[in-house]
Design brief:
13% of the residues lie in helices and 35% in strands. With 334 residues, the protein is mainly β. The radius of gyration is 23 Å and the shape is globular. The termini are far apart.
Length: 334
Amino acid sequence: MTGERTAGSPAPDELYERLKAFEGRTTVQGGEGRDPVNEPMIRHWCEAMGDTNPAYPGIAPPTMLQAWTMGGLAGHPAGSARTGAHDELFGLLDDAGCTSIVATDCEQEYPRPLRPGDRVRFDGVIESVSPRKTTALGSGYFITTRMDIHVGDVLVGTHRFRVLKYAPARRSPQPKPSPQPQPRPQPKPQPASTARAARPRPVVNRDNEGFWEGVAEHRLLLQRCAGCATLRFPWLPGCGRCGSPEWETAEASGRGTVFSHVVMHHPPFPAFEPPYAVGLVELAEGVRMVGGITGVPYDKVRIGMPVELEFLRVEDTKGAMELPVFRATAEEAV
């Protein structure tokens, strides 16, 4: 689906020129955080994330940056500093058939930490619109917005958020089998190799490429801070405990327990067969990571269940890749 049009929509080149005109347009100007940076919200965040860094709540965790700009369930008050540029851009894409959206990645920069009592203000801009791209999901445009966050006149953070606004790819309808009485199917462990629709590929960047190189070698690599020896995952450019940018790798044993989990039913995606379980696994080394849970039916996964790492080789329309997943131990699978 590279050049399809809906009735009345502009030609792809013409559409792109219209989209490019949005680059540099302001989406928020002079926005203000609903609440000052405060210790209770920092504490709730740290408890949810399991972050015991002693620096908090004296400062806010850097990854909370966007939280201070959000309007909460009630949204931002009427008359806030948001413009209509974002809605106008997305309306143009909707009219052109790009009615679906998926977040792809975000980048944050932290020039200085936020402290309790800080009052943040923020300005947003549409930073870039890509040419039309064709992906496994469909054909559309990558939209990058940037938010600059200040305390007074001091820049304290920058948040870039990128989405793909696309027209879903058409898929051939599957013939429906004749209705016959069938026993209730029992979920089976995921096979070691499966050929199916393309799975989403992990985003590999300069901060985490070493992790994925380890996965390709069937090694689960963590980072160990060279300053305070704290283990961390996911991979980050610096230590959240002492701030040191120096680190080395440490290979995890692969043993862990399910700290939390969800069962995915919706939305359906061709590369997966719902329902299936996704867990937050606490490794024996003390860090946590997200991964698929295999080896037992999805409804038998439980908090505290012991699991062991295995590497799943997936072959699909994009080729082969290795993924770390967690299998219930033999005692649990009985």
